[in-house]
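Chapter summary example: a protein plus heme C.
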Amino acid sequence: MYFYDIRYMFVTTKVVIIYSLSIFRVFSLCKFITNNMKSFLYIIAFAASVLIVFLSNAKGVPQAVTKAPGESGFDCGACHSGGNFNTSITLHVKDSSGNIVTQYEPDKTYQLEVMVTGQNNAKSYGFQMVALSDSDNKDQGRWTNLGTNVKTQNMLQRKYILQSNPRQDGIFTATWQAPPTDLGSVSFYFSGLAVNLNGSNTGDSPVSSKLTLPSSTISSLSDFHLNVVKIFPNPARNIIYISSSENVQPLGIFNSQGQKMSVNLTDPEKGIDISALPAGLYFLQHQGVFPHTVQTRSFIKD
Ligand code: HEC
């Protein structure tokens, strides 16, 4: 709520400056101008530049509000509310042939489309989005080719994309180049806002969502490994088994925050009991089928 206060301060300052300027005009403008022409011009120039800075902020978004981990937990509703637009938001990630993908390949380039829609005559729409690797919540990939009314902004040591101005059709586009190496799954956190364009944060309706894309690494060497070591069943509720043409020694099971889980790995042939783990995405680290390599397979606990 810190930025919220600052924002309010900005708005209040704006009002105070405009107000005092007009009082000023009424009471002592003529006398002041004749006596202090130079300082008067300085003050006007200063007030104007302050106003320009604040007003130019008006169509951006002053804060990271996609509900991604590491943020304050709000969407645009931190400041905007009061609308009845029933806003919804969808993200499509498309490959170069325009097909919607559900996995990403390292280093490949994807076309992203955020679509914000609203009912009851919403006038315009805004959005914000960030892409984070699930393992460490660091921002991933490279944003290029930003569509009309889309800009990037650094916040919380991450690069966000967001509206530079609202769009009437609610469709915001950008190109995203996936991270150069396989980092496991990446999640897109995005929030949208349907607005009434009344120049304030009232009468608007926020929404937010998340899309996770697992990685699909296709390279000759790792493909070979992928084919020889498999975890089944996947997803699993109680017991997982490692299937492999050679003897594979499990080393540890980690959650998506990278924390090692306490799981009994002593007799993997009989299966690994994962019934005590909370539902979610996990990584089994095992000694590779080639000696001295450590590899990771992911699985989902139901
Ligand atoms: C910290 C407070 C704050 C947050 C968070 C915030 N806004 Fe705003 N926004 C404002 C204020 C205040 C205004 C009113 C105009 C101004 O002074 O900038 C505004 C105005 C707007 C407008 C013009 C609205 C209209 O009806 O004229 C749009 C569009 C907008 N914001 C989009 C967004 C989007 C999209 C998000 C979330 C991703 C967002 N804002 C998050 C404070 C915020």
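Key point: Residues 3-4, 7, 11, 57-58, 61-63, 65, 76, 78-80, 126-128, 163, 166, 191, 193, 195-201, 204 surround heme C (CB under 6 Å).
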